[in-house]
Amino acid sequence: MSRLAEFRKLEQQLAAQLAELESLKNDTGLQKEMEFENKLRGLLGEYNYSLRDVINILDPQAGGRKGTPAAAPEKTTRKARSVKVYKNPHTGELVETKGGNHKLLKAWKAEHGNDEVESWLAK
After folding, report:
1. Are residues 54 and 91 in the same domain?
2. pLDDT (0 to 100) of residue 63
3. Rounded to whole angstroms, how far apart are CA atoms 103 and 20?
4. Is the residue at 74 inside a domain?
5. Which of residues 43, 58, 73 is at a domain's end?
6. For residue 39, what are the CA distances in angstroms to 22, 24, 30, 50, 109?
7. What are the phi and psi torsion angles at 2 (to 5°)?
8. Do residue 88 and residue 44 come from a single domain?
9. What is the pTM of this model?
10. Domain range for residue 113?
11. Spatial separation of the C-alpha atoms in residues 11 and 116, rounded to whole Å
12. Are residues 47 and 7 located together in one domain of the fold?
């Protein structure tokens, strides 16, 4: 793409974004949200609170800075995958894998079908 074509394309994108910005400026819903945010920030400043303080007041478990510390979620360990051994009856090749992302196993499934290859499962 030539530099001029790239410039024109970016210029059109900018014009579209500016038009979208203007339409958002005239959106009453956005104006109400902005007014709410300004009033909220004013109140927070007036009472010397931060957003985190308000969150901790409303839901102490969600924050963690003031009040009771939030409980850490318990770690769950997954069961280790077992090794599966597939034996190709046509070639006698063996494939040992813990998952289905083995290159040769995928090739066999593409060639012979998933059901047939699964029937080759030895262990």
Report:
1. no
2. 62
3. 48
4. no
5. 58
6. 23, 20, 14, 14, 62
7. -70, 160
8. no
9. 0.39
10. 84-118
11. 57
12. yes
Asked whether residue 41 is assigned to any structural domain, the reply reads: yes
Among residues 73, 55, 74, the alpha carbon closest in space to that of 64 is found at: 55
Tell whether 68 is covered by a domain: no
The pLDDT profile of the chain, 123 residues, written as one tens digit per residue, is: 799 999 999 999 999 999 999 888 888 888 999 999 999 999 999 999 988 888 888 888 876 555 455 566 788 888 888 899 989 998 989 989 987 788 888 998 999 998 998 899 886
Selection from 61, 42, 41, 59 nearest residue 51 by Cα: 41
Q: What is the pLDDT, as a whole number, of residue 54?
A: 87
Encoded tokens for 25: 């400026």
**Beta-sheet strands, E only, within the chain:** 84-87, 94-97
**Structural domain contains residue 79:** no
